[in-house]
Design brief:
Order of helices and strands: EEEEEEEEEEE
Shape: elongated
Number of helices: 0
Helix content: under 10%
Oligomer: single chain
Amino acid sequence: QVDLVESGGGLVQPGGSLRLSCVASGNVVDMSAMAWYRRAPGKERAFVASLWWNGAGTYYADSVKGRFTISRDKANKMLYLQMNSLKPEDTAVYYCKAVVRPSTSTSYDYWGQGTQVTVSS
């Protein structure tokens, strides 16, 4: 079992910045990857960014490339999302996701409760 708690959301003006954080606790020994997703009003939850926990690479949705940066602090089991040049269309609830792989044939997904980001003037 892995518990995830996000923080850092809030109200920001267009062009502003926010940094989201996600702390993982529980059985994180077999952590494989972590990611950020978001759910905008009236839309399905969508991928934002992800990284391999071992540092092998990062991935971004086209809509956030060049503006958002995903990173992690492995020692403290933290995941971050630095969001710059925010736009009103970035308004959403942002979720942290952890992928745990105890074996090559077994994988579990865990989700946080989400943090609201509102971009508005």
